[in-house]
Specification:
The complex is a heterodimer of chains A (about 290) and B (about 130).
Chain A: E1 3-8, H1 21-31, E2 35-43, E3 65-74, E4 95-100, H2 103-111, E5 117-119, H3 132-140, E6 144-148, H4 150-154, H5 156-173, E7 178-181, H6 193-202, H7 207-214, H8 216-230, E8 237-240, E9 265-268, H9 277-291
Parallel strand pairs in A: 1-2, 2-3, 3-4, 4-5, 5-6, 6-7
Antiparallel strand pairs in A: 8-9
Helix pairs in contact in A: 2-3, 6-7, 7-8
Chain B: E1 6-15, H1 30-54, E2 58-63, E3 68-74, H2 78-86, E4 90-91, E5 94-104, H3 107-130
Antiparallel strand pairs in B: 1-3, 1-5, 2-3, 4-5
Helix pairs in contact in B: 1-2
The chains are: A alpha/beta (about 290), B alpha+beta (about 130).
């Protein structure tokens, strides 16, 4: 399963020549990616009435899974009060990311903000130093750092800075919690997944870790985002059975024929780790008791 | 053993406007690919890169019809050449992308993969035509 969690949805400035979204997604499908996230970038104050601008309703028929992502460019700590779990508008986006521009916002993002990805501007010199302590704190909280490779393909100076910043990040985070994404404005800037794994090796990771950066780590981001949105203290979430996809029906069990359709609800745990079988049975029986 | 070992990189070139192959444009040759790869190594890895790879770099085969090519590199520097391939953005001023399909120790493995790949492509095209 290959993920590309950063495909810019709308061009940032008028000068940027951006390809049609459809062309880029077709290219991704051709390269063998299975999941893509459309990224909407916003600057300024985090407000509580953001609506999801990304429209994926007409693109449902493609054989790639589509997610939505919001990236906030943080300039000042006072703008961040909207980034809390209680902000319902932000829950319309699948993934939440943040791009800090100075040391204070970076520290704030690593320590307190409820987000999934910290995205750093890799194409130019980073305005702050990456320290083991702060980055370690973010890793403990389950936040991932993003390296985007398209700036390296566009421009020669960006390439130098990207390699330098990426090597720095890999050294400070010890190879953990890194994801590699494209941020491609045009279809020609996309690359196949194994080519990206190879780029990861020149950034200081070994091949296995580099492959994780576009597979398992990205999956962890998606699950972390779902946990953040749907669950209370990351324990239990309720979904109606009808929302399960056909390849997830095993979760309901063999007696799915006996369950009344539509009305009953099944508790579905959103935990990134494997479930304990014992705990599962006792919990589901408790919940059945509660229903009755 | 002081045998010089190689890696064979099988790659595919994807052009921006693939639908109509303009007959006035010359088809690409393996020499064009070789020049582009050398330039990319010079640009990204400098004289050191050129030095490391010059003796063993060789574009063995390239077909402009299927856009598939085969490249030979010494085993110690194949990652460097692979990165140089990834950074290529145009060949002969035509915008293109290079995607590496397979890296193998012998030509035979790569040849098997080319046959598989061509078969898949033909089946895909057949399906599209049927639909």
């Amino acid at each position: 399963m290959f993920y590309d969690l950063n495909l810019p949805y709308r061009a940032q400035h008028d000068l940027v020549n951006q390809d049609d979204l459809r062309t880029r997604v077709d290219m991704l499908i051709k390269f063998g990616y299975q999941v893509v996230a459309y990224n909407h970038v916003v600057t300024g104050k985090v407000s509580s009435n953001e609506t999801n601008v990304i429209d994926i309703s007409d693109k449902k028929k493609t054989n790639i899974e589509q997610l939505t992502r919001l990236t906030y460019i943080l300039e000042d700590i006072s703008q961040n009060h909207g980034l809390t779990p209680t902000n319902n508008a932000l829950a319309t986006y699948d993934i939440l990311a943040v791009r800090p521009t100075n040391e204070k916002t970076f520290q704030n993002a690593c320590n307190t903000l409820e987000i999934d990805i910290i995205s750093l501007e890799m194409g130019s010199r980073l305005p702050f130093y990456l320290k083991h302590s702060i980055v370690g704190l973010a890793i403990e909280r389950g936040i991932f750092f993003e390296i985007s490779y398209a700036p390296a393909i566009r421009d020669s100076t960006s390439r130098r800075y990207l390699i330098s910043n990426a090597q720095n990040l890999v050294r400070v985070s010890r190879g953990k919690n890194i994801i590699i994404t494209s941020e491609a404005q045009r279809a020609m800037e996309l690359r196949g997944p194994y080519d990206i794994v190879n780029l990861g090796t020149i950034m200081g990771m070994n091949q296995a870790i580099a492959k994780e950066c576009i597979t398992t780590n990205c999956r962890s981001v998606v699950i972390h985002a779902a946990t953040r949105r749907n669950t209370h203290k990351a324990v239990v979430s309720f979904d109606p059975i009808t929302s399960l996809k056909s390849n997830e029906l095993w979760k309901v069990g063999k007696d799915k024929k006996s369950l009344p359709t539509g009305k009953s609800k099944k508790a579905k745990r959103m935990r990134p780790n494997t479930d304990d079988d014992d705990e599962d049975e006792s919990e589901s029986s408790q919940l059945q008791n509660m229903d009755m | 053993m002081v045998r010089l070992k190689h890696r064979w990189i099988l790659f595919e070139t994807l052009f921006e406007n693939t639908s109509h192959q303009d007959t006035s444009i010359d088809p690409l040759t393996s020499h064009d690919i070789y020049i582009t790869v050398k330039e990319s190594i010079q640009l990204n890895f400098g004289d050191y890169g050129r030095g490391c790879t010059s003796s063993s770099l060789n574009v063995k085969y390239y077909s402009p019809h299927t856009n598939i090519g085969l490249l030979r590199v010494s085993r110690d520097y194949y990652r460097m050449v692979w990165c140089a391939l990834t950074f290529i953005t145009q060949i002969n001023s035509r915008s293109c992308t290079i995607r590496v399909l397979h890296v193998g120790g012998t030509i035979k493995q790569c040849q098997k993969l080319v046959i598989e790949y061509d078969r898949e492509q033909l089946l895909e095209n057949e399906d599209l035509n049927d639909i």
